[in-house]
Amino acid sequence: MNYLLKKSVIATALALGLGSTTVAFAQTPTVNVATDPSFVPFEMMDPETGEMIGFDMDIINAVAERAGFEVNLTTMEFSGIIPAVQTGSQEIALAGITITDERAEVVDFSAPYYDSGLQIIVRADNEEVSSLEDLAGLTIATKIGSTSYDFLQQELGEDADITPYPGTADMYMALLGRNVDAVLYDAPNVAYFSQTRGEGRTKVVGPLYEGQQYGIVFHKGSEWVEPTNEALASMREDGTYDEIYTKWFGEAPSAE
């Protein structure tokens, strides 16, 4: 065989072999994802398995499968989530995080994946509170770093004693323990608590305040924003989103 031809054949074989090896060892990228374990039913710890479950967990797992990444989940207090994504220690986060202009200055958001708002919950024997105006002069619990805290500061300010708590369980325990008069927080979480641990002891009052939308949070400039939006869109189109929604909340909302 001609020497140059022989070298060409060997080089081609090596290149093909190297290519095969590269494909064989290609791995799905692992992405750091942060969440708050106390925002039920969006994310919570399964006491039997020790794994995180909930609406958000089903959403991010379905997104990851379609977008092409593995989830490396980290739990932390809600107030630390945006800073963790902002600094890059976490690439993605979801924990019922409301899309706001202020947050969008330091992180990127996906397309909205859940419509929410704020509601008031009081003890079952409370006959005095039925609206936001009735909270004036009272002690109100909410969550540190949440949009509900900002809303209370804006609407009531010094007219009420606004007490932020690090976790949702803390603020509900304060309500049941009569340390606060009311809680104002995200409507789906308030409703879930009232229908589960707070059943018979609490009630939801007043209208829905501050219509909000939740989004998945990303480090600024993340490569995963577009694939995530594409995954969310396909999940709505093929019914996967409705299946997940129905599992945790009942009948899925109309697409209109």
Mean pLDDT: 89
Strand order of the largest sheet: 4-1-5-12-6
- For the record, give the distance between the C-alpha atoms at the N and C termini, rounded to a whole number: 71 Å
In what range is the share of β-strand residues?
15-25%
Largest sheet properties = 5 strands, mixed
Class of the largest domain, according to the CATH hierarchy?
Alpha Beta
At CATH's second level, what is the architecture of the largest domain?
3-Layer(aba) Sandwich
How many helical stretches?
9
Number of strands: 12
- CATH fourth-tier homologous superfamily of the largest domain: Periplasmic binding protein-like II
Radius of gyration (Å): 24 Å
Estimated helix fraction: 25-40%
Look at the helices and sheets and give the structural class. alpha/beta
Could you say how many structural domains there are in total? 2
Overall 3D shape: globular
Query: How is the CATH topology of the largest domain named?
Result: D-Maltodextrin-Binding Protein, domain 2
Pfam family, one: SBP_bac_3
Main location: other
Protein name: Transporter substrate-binding domain-containing protein
Keywords: Signal
Task: Write the SSE topology.
Blueprint: H1 3-25, E1 30-35, E2 44-45, E3 52-53, H2 55-67, E4 70-75, H3 81-87, E5 92-93, H4 101-104, E6 107-109, E7 114-123, E8 139-143, H5 147-155, E9 161-165, H6 168-176, E10 182-186, H7 187-195, E11 202-214, E12 217-219, H8 225-237, H9 240-249
Parallel strand pairs: 1-4, 1-5, 8-9, 8-10
Antiparallel strand pairs: 2-3, 5-12, 6-12, 7-10, 7-11
Organism: Vreelandella alkaliphila
Domain Solute-binding protein family 3/N-terminal: 30-252
Protein name: Transporter substrate-binding domain-containing protein
